[in-house]
Amino acid sequence: MTRVYRSPARAEAAARTRAAIVASARELLVTEGYVGATVERIAHGAGVNIDTVYRSVGRKAEVMRAVVESALSGSPDAVPAQQRDYVLRIREASTAGEKLDTYAGALVAIQQRLAPVFAALRDAAHTDESSRELWRQISERRARNMREFAGELRSTGELRDDLDDEQVADIVWSMNGPEYWILLVEERGWPPERFERWIADAWRRLLLRRS
User: Fold this and answer.
1) Can you give 117-179 as a three-state secondary structure string?
2) Nearest to 37 by CA among 57, 23, 48, 19
């Protein structure tokens, strides 16, 4: 049986190329909008040719998905929610308050990357079906993840008895979206640190039993 040799140097070069493409696409998407972020301009910004974009990431729809996944994970590649550092810290936390604080801190880091991307895709969704479908899929995945988060909170025994996990998940989902961040941080000028304190406190008041 022939063994397939994978060169570490080649893999590292491929990873750098992909990262450059994703970074170029993000910059163009945020500054020029979806229409302005053409594959030709993405390739130019990354210092590669168009075929390399297609081979490394894919067509424009796949590139835009990679941009969203990068904003969510903080790396050029998609990282499943269950493997992200903050999710592991949430699982290790013993109280609901600690879990909420951990998630609030992670959310601030995520939204600083994600909110500008969301705003560009939101505008594009009016005329571009792939943008609309991409954000729908991401929103549904967020909702599923929040149901798992609700289960984490439930395991502490500190959630209000009149809220079921679906309600808890929907409350967190509605407040962790880029729309909420844009309203308070970008439109009302809240510093990220204030947003973090506020949302952690709001979740405590809304979701946890009073001691």
Assistant:
1) HHHHHHHHCCCCHHHHHHHHHHHHHHHHHHHHHHHHHHCCCCECCCCCHHHHHHHHHHHCCHH
2) 23
Short-list 84, 42, 81, CA closest to 61: 42
**C-alpha distance across the termini of the chain, in Å:** 65
- pTM comes to 0.85
Q: Is 47 left (phi over 0), alpha (psi -120 to 50) or beta?
A: left
pLDDT tens for residues 76-108?
Answer: 777 777 788 999 999 999 999 999 999 999 999
**Domains annotated on the chain, with CATH:** 1-60 (1.10.10), 80-207 (1.10.357)
CA nearest 153: which of 208, 105, 107? 208
Would you call 70 exposed, middle or buried from its count of C-beta atoms within 10 A (0-12, 13-18, 19+)? buried
Task: Let me know the angle formed at the C-alpha of 188 by 139 and 206, rounded to the nearest 5 degrees.
Answer: 55
State the pLDDT at residue 84: 85
- Largest Cα–Cα distance of the chain, in whole Å? 65
Residue with tokens 């308070």: 184
Q: Which residue type occupies 205?
A: R
- Read off the DSSP letter of residue 48: S
Q: How far is CA 92 from CA 86, 96, 98, 153, 158, in A?
A: 10, 11, 9, 12, 16
